[in-house]
Each structure stands twice: as structure tokens, then as C-alpha cells.
Amino acid sequence: MAADHQPVMLDEVLHYLDVQPADVVVDCTLGMGGHAAAIAARLTAGGKLIARDRDVESLELARQRLQGLEDRIVFDPGKFSGLRAALTRLGFPVADRVLADCGISMYQLKAPQRGFSFLEEGPLDMRMGATEEGPTAGEIVNFYSEKDIAQILEAGEERRGRRIARAIVRARPVETTTQLSGIIRRALPPMDRSRIHPSTLSFQSLRLAVNQEMEELQALLDALPEVVKPGGRVVFLTFHSLEDRPVKQAFQRLAREGRARLLNRHVATATDEETRRNPAARSAKLRALEMTGS
Ligand SMILES: C[S@@+](CC[C@H](N)C(=O)[O-])C[C@H]1O[C@@H](n2cnc3c(N)ncnc32)[C@H](O)[C@@H]1O
To answer: Which of 46, 117, 126, 179 would be a feasible disulfide site paired with 22, CB 3.0-4.6 Å?
Structure first.
């Protein structure tokens, strides 16, 4: 799995990060280590890659993939919200480069036991860090009120959240991903089952809630002025508009306040060639920033 992993928009990420040999680089989303391998290869022993991910399982797989480059990598499990404290603890309070490739990895999506995929039978888990505290998706659908479930679904852009929440509550207990997917499909009129799979937005919404993804993303954006050196660069890859919006807003605010310079005025996307080769890149949006330090 790790060996055939294709990091999204790698050329563009490297172009905008512009890593220098002695840089301290933070990869906040190590995943399978695709971007990290290319970044570490650009560092000399004087540089450091702080490789972080909230998923300890992914961190271990990436560690194996990155064998031979360990002299310049510090593996550090943890969430976006813990970045500031982690950098201080590790003795690198400010970084030259920060990368965040948001969302879940193909590895997480395709592991049925993690419960992210509605195409594979699995438990309703959806925690990015398999050892993190709950709630799991199963706890949400089985124990939250219909109103709260509807709110969670609508917050994740599933506008039919109330109808789906009602069907979920009626069908309790809901044990597996495919069972939940069947409930969602039957709750929607056939004409609504159009372009995307009927479960796509509900599963995305549950995942966002389980992992507090929007809160985590905001915590990382808020930390940027303190964790990136003047002249340092930041690159974010996002995969849906809910993620891209806060990144765009935070970058524009920093630029307006004269604390940073936008490196791309218009969001960068994957080339047609990459999208053909790697469909996961289709919805990717890249934004890059240089801190100016005031
Ligand atoms: C799209 S994957 C990264 C893929 C990676 N760039 C590569 O080339 O292999 C996103 C990773 O970020 C991690 N992640 C997502 N949100 C996080 C957060 N708030 N804190 C730490 N890690 C997070 C996920 O566990 C996942 O492994």
C-alpha cells in the first residue's frame, strides 16, 4: 500500500515550499510519507523534518517507508491543535516550512476496519487516530438525538440531513458502514440519487464531526504566525470547500494585515494528467503563503 501511494500535487507542493537544505520543515499530515520522502530528500543532515500525524498506525507505516532518511526526521504523533506545544517540546519552536495535506489518506479510506468507506463492510469507527478517544461514528448514530445527528449532517453539507437523521434513528441499532449506507440510500428519493454516491456527504459529515476536523484546521491556521519564521512558507492542500474556505480566509486575513504574502493569488489545482493518473487529486486545492513577520 505505502509503496504505490501517490502524493497529491507533489511538484506544485515542492515548488511552493521551496525547501532549503538546512530548513526545519513540519509535515503536519505525514500519512504514508509521500510528500515527506521528497521533502526529506532535499534536506541535509543540518535540516530537520518534523513528521506528524494523529494516526499512530500511519506514522509507523511511513517510518518504514522513510527508512534511510531517519537522520533528518523526527517522528512525532499528534494533532494540529498540539503543534505549537510539540514544536517547543522538540526544541524547534519556529519552522521554516509547514505543509498540511488535509483529510484522510487512501490508506485510511481503504482499510475497512477503520470504517471510513461506505463501499466496504466495517465497524462505524471513523476516528483518524485509531487509538483516540471517541465519539466514534457508531456512538453518534446510535446515541445522539435525531436533532443533533441532523445538525452534524447539515454541517457537513448534506442538505438532506433531517430526512437521513430520521431514518437513522428509526433503524437503530446501526452497526456497520454498509448498513448505514443502505439506510441513507433508502431514505432518499431515487431522483436525489444522482451524481455522487448517496452516502458521500453523510459519511464526510460524520467523519468531520468524529475528528473535529474543522476545529483542528482552525487551530492550525491560528497557530501559523507563531510557528512559522519570517520568510517561512506554508502550503495547504484541501479536498472540499468546507476545508478550503477557512484556509482561504485565514491566508487572506494574514495578507491583509501585512503579516504574510500570498504565493498564489488563484488556488492551484492538479493537472489533467495527474487527475487521470490519480483520481484522488481531482478535487485538490493548493494554497501557499510566505510569512513576512510583522
Ligand atoms: C491526505 S493524508 C496525507 C498524505 C501524505 N501527505 C502522503 O503523501 O502520504 C492526511 C493525513 O493527515 C492526518 N490528519 C488529518 N487531520 C489531522 C489533524 N488534525 N492532526 C494530525 N493529523 C491529521 C490523517 O491522519 C492522514 O494520515
So the answer is: 46
